[in-house]
Amino acid sequence: MATLEYACEGLVGVLTPQANTTVEPEFNILWPAGVAMINARLTSPKQSMAERLADYAGQIETTLDQFANAPIGAAAFACTGASYLIGKDREAALCAKIEKARHYPLVTAARAVCEWLNLLQAKHIGLVSPYPPDLTGQSAAYWQGAGFEVAEVVSVVDEASEFHPIYSLSAGDAGDGLDALADKNLDAIVMLGTGMPTLRPILERNHWHGPPITSCMLSLAWRTSLVVQGQQPSAENAMAWSRGEAWGQRMKFLGSA
Fold first, then answer.
1. Which of 2, 95, 131, 208 lies at 20 to 30 Å from 49 by C-alpha?
2. pLDDT tens digits for 235-252?
3. Contact predicate 27/55, CB 8 Å
């Protein structure tokens, strides 16, 4: 593998939904020193979110072609909604097919969240959902099919947005969703989607009395970073990421700017 000036610890190829305004900013906060990314946009002319997600799922392999022969160590699929639609079995088969053909793994946000939950032995979970009801239901079915009990769901969707009901959400909206679950009997909370801002709410609650928190973006960055750095996942490094030990100072610096 080539050594790159700005990616001496590893280069990640990221697949991002076309109008998503959160993936690149949050990844740029989350990547450890020496890990960098290049980005490709998943595009679709369809009008409904469900139709676009189906298109994104169907074009993963061709979108990876945008990276040509760049020496990426892993690809990160930053579109959790598409995983819900294809289901965990087709998702796993697709990941295996891509790794065999391209010689690098495809890490999906949904599978990264599952690994984070399993390492923490979390079975009884709560969801903070920015999705409309139908996609929230498909999300819950995905987690339940992966062996988790979805005990609580809080919706923070912004239906009034003229831009996008997910990408227009604020960190405060996301934090309100967390606070609604703070006193519930849960093993963990998952903040859904790669478009809802999640890092500030997670960092602000890193010493709270509620259950451990992850988000799709946080789990995806954690798992992909470990892959390109040749490290193994553990409950300890999963929780260190959720506490913001490696990225929290960068988030605080941005907040003070």
1. 95
2. 999 999 999 998 999 988
3. no
